[in-house]
Amino acid sequence: MIDLTVLTEHWESYFIGLRNTLFASLMALAGSFALGTVIAVFRISPIKVLQACGTAYVELFRNIPLLLVVYMFFLGLPALGIALNGFVSGTLGLMVYTSAFIAEAIRAGILAVPQGQTEAARSSGLTYVQTMRYVVLPQAVKIVVPPITNQFLNLVKNSSILGVVAGLDLMYYGDLVNADTYNTVDTYMFVALFYLILTLPLAYASRLMERRFARSG
Amino acid sequence: MDFGQAYSPDNLRFLMEGLGMTLRLALVAIILSFIIGCVLGVIRYARVPVLSKLVGILVEIIRNLPLLLLIFFARFGLPELGIKLSPFWAAIVALSIFEAAMISEIVRSGLKSVEKGTIEAARASGLSYMQTLRHIILPIGLRRMVPPIVSQFISLLKDTSLAVIISLAELTHNANIVMGQDISIVLPTLLLVAALYFAVNYALSIVARRLESKPT
Fold first, then answer.
1. In Å, how far is A109's CA from the nearest CA of chain B?
2. Count of domains forming chain A
3. A144 near A105, Cβ under 8 Å?
4. Position B213 pLDDT exceeds 80
5. Which InterPro entries does this one have (chain A) (predicted)?
6. For A70, which of A128, B62, B128, B131 is 20 to 30 Å away at the CA?
7. Cβ–Cβ below 8 Å for A64 and B72
8. Is it the case that residue A37 has pLDDT exceeding 70?
9. Measured between alpha carbons, how far is B121 from B114 in angstroms, rounded to an integer?
10. What domains appear along chain B, each with residue ranges and CATH number?
11. Exposed, middle or buried: residue A143 (CB in 10 Å: 0-12, 13-18, 19+)?
12. How far apart are CA A95 and CA A34, in angstroms?
């Protein structure tokens, strides 16, 4: 049977862990959205150098493990004399890693806006940046929302990596509870439950949106 | 930064052993997760009463949990339930179950993308439901699933690094030990390990792209 005292006696630990997980995920989402948008615009820009930089960035971070990106902040920066704690380096790692995936989602969204729109905007005198800002991006946002919701879902799951670098998230606090209760199965059952509380609504929302956008074309 | 010390023959050999373990782990998990994923995907597609619903709920739960949690649970939770696994097999079990859940979704949507007319034609020409599934729906659907499944395998290869938390001697774990020698070799080691992961995954993604551009 599941031992409920694991939860009732440690609910504070679970709550702090859940809050930090959510906090890290939200900050990483905001950061990776901003960074991802810049990279996506690089990738489709007419300037060859920017294109190459964007492509290199995306290919690099999509093909190395998230843990390694986090290590670059957690172990690599201290070697250069910049020491960050687990929470900050974990969140930065998540942000950089996720931005590559978000950049691809945004690029696909931008490419889905018909070419004629860009041409019309350019020929009516808007600059490239203005065209992006006022014509293409507002339309692309609609296409991009479902895949980005999916990325946020991945982000919440991936944020468990903070547990590896003592990042004070749900995994980390689960470890603390476990050290106190010696009841691994029940302790992590509740950790799993708290993750599901965050991820299942996101999964449901992204499916709903995908269906709705598919219908409206 | 001390490249000479970081890339000493002993360190390199140790990292290569780690890479070997990573590749072995990935290969076994890829094979198992593909088989399990296909079976689960077909069960969900075929709408077997009760069973399909049950599989659907299980898949949904596993897909929405962090893999790290599953790996940890397989190594330290299962023994409390009487199942003792070595770090290698704990990682295999967790990776296979998690990636199988992901692959089952790919398989299901691939099968769903097979046009109704094709299926009706097969049934009308006298094939049974199982025959239609086996000879018509699966071959067409599977071909469409190849690109997303290869990207899932790339994810799997990256995810093997999470086995660090159960101290399995794979690439990231061995890199951790090498980096413990001295702070001056941290960056060179991280660079080398990133390059190794990148090389393997990039090769896989080129295969994926080639398959994608092939007309089906």
1. 19
2. 1
3. yes
4. no
5. AA_ABC_transptr_permease_3TM, ArtM/GltK/GlnP/TcyL/YhdX-like, MetI-like, MetI-like_sf
6. B62
7. no
8. yes
9. 12
10. 3-213 (1.10.3720.10)
11. middle
12. 10
Cβ atoms of A133 and A102 closer than 8 Å: no
Query: What ipTM was assigned to the predicted interfaces of this complex?
Result: 0.89
Region label for A183, one of left (φ > 0), alpha (ψ between -120 and 50) or beta (otherwise)? beta
Which amino acid, residue B56?
A: G
Task: Compute the distance between CA of residue A133 and CA of residue A121 in angstroms, rounded to an integer.
Answer: 11
For residue A168, the SS3 value is coil
A208: domain range?
A: 5-216
Which amino acid is present at A145? V
CA distance A210 to chain B (A): 14
CA distance A159 to A199: 12
Optimal mutation site among A178, A184, A187, A200, interface B, most CBs of chain B within 10 A: A184
The CA distance from A212 to B172, in Å, is 42
Nearest alpha carbon to residue B89 among B18, B170, B28: B28
B100 at interface of A, judged by CB pairs closer than 8 A: no
C-beta separation of B33 from B105 below 8 A: no
Residue A126's φ and ψ, nearest 5 degrees, are -75, 145
Comparing CA positions, the residue from A116, A120, A122, A118 lying closest to residue A136 is A118
Distance between CA A113 and CA B95 in Å, rounded?
38
pLDDT of residue A217: 47
Contact call for B161 and A80, based on CB within 8 A: no
CATH number of residue A187's parent domain: 1.10.3720.10
Contact A185 B77 (CB under 8 A): yes
If you write DSSP's letter for every residue of A179-214 in order, what string do you get? HHH--HHHHHHHHHHHHHHHHHHHHHHHHHHHHHHH
Q: Tokens for B176?
A: 């951790």
pLDDT tens digits, one per residue of A160-171: 999 999 899 999
Tell me which residues of chain B, numbers 127 to 156, contact chain A at a CB-CB cutoff of 8 Å.
154
Lowest-confidence segment of A187-201, A202-216, B4-18, B196-210 by average pLDDT: A202-216
Nearest in space to B20 (alpha carbons), one of B205, B208, B186, B196: B196
Residues in chain A: 217
Q: Model-level pTM?
A: 0.90
Name the average pLDDT for chain A.
91
Cβ-nearest to B69 among A67, A71, A191: A191
Q: pLDDT (tens digit, 9 = 90+) per residue, A91-141?
A: 999 999 999 999 999 999 888 888 899 899 999 999 988 998 898 888 888
